[in-house]
Each structure stands twice: as structure tokens, then as C-alpha cells.
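Appendix B, Record 12. Input sequence as logged:
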Amino acid sequence: MKQSVKMRGPSASMGFMGVLCLDSSYGNRTTEQQTGCRNKSEHCNSFCVFCDLSFRERNLCYELLIKQMCFEPFNKSMSTLNPKEFCQWNSIKSPYDKFTICTEERADCLLIPWPNKLVERMFVEIHSNYFKSCPTQELDDPPPSIVFALVMTPICLIPVMVVLVVMKTKNGDRRT
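Logged structural output:
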């Protein structure tokens, strides 16, 4: 079920990218006039300006930001891959990492906890869309001979170690 996100204020007609470059006076406002922004970088400040001017809640803004700036680029980069490559970590590592970092940076800027339910839902969607046909490797128990060797080795070593300690102390040889 898709929800539409309504923007408010003077930026509603400017579109997403127009607002990111909009209000240069935002940084000059007093602390009471602006909502907190984790990082004082220009990049992060532009997200805070956009969200504060356009949305009542930062969570709604965060959702829009990660859909447009993280999820869409991820989908675009995955569409360039052959579906057989979806199960090869070397092929998907870069877009997957970029998506993760993108969502985390946006959340950090907007003082939103990460991971969060929205990001978890997106990861579930990504996995169900791209990785559902990847084979899973189930681990089996090792053969009985290996289990026997791994269990018997310490069992046999314990009496040997006890005998060595007893012999060493019985002879009065206290050298190490």
C-alpha cells in the first residue's frame, strides 16, 4: 500500500531538489527557530532545511529522502546486473553498501535512530525482490568420524596431563 507524502510551506511547489538549495538564511536562524541537525556539514544542513521547511515530521521527510536518494539508485544499479549475479556478493556488495551508508547518513543528519522500521522494511523488500532465488547453504553435521576425533582428543589428553603433573611433583623436580 503506497502512501503519498504531502509537502507543506513555500517549498511545496519547488520540488525535492529545488528545496535542497533554497534557504541560505536557514543557517543564520537562532537555535529556537530550527530543529536540531546532527552534523553541521553543508550536505547535512541542506537535508535539515528541506525537512524543516517541507514536512511536519522528520520521519516523513526521511522516508522521501531515502526512497529518492538511496532506494532508487540501488534499484537502478541492480537493474544493470544480470539476475544470475544477484547471488554473487562481489557483484552486489557495492550497491548494497551504498544503500546502507546512504540510509544511515540521512538518519544521522535528521537525528533519526538507525536502524529503524522503515529501513528494515526496505531491506526486507530488497531481499524479497532480488535475493529470493539465491540458494541457501544449509550446514550439515560433520561425519561421525570427525565428531569422534574432536570429542576423544580432549578426553584422552586430560589423563595424560594429570599423569605428567603427578610425576613432576612426585619426583621433587620443581623446575619449569
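The helical segments are 16-20, 42-54, 58-79, 89-109, 117-130, 144-170.
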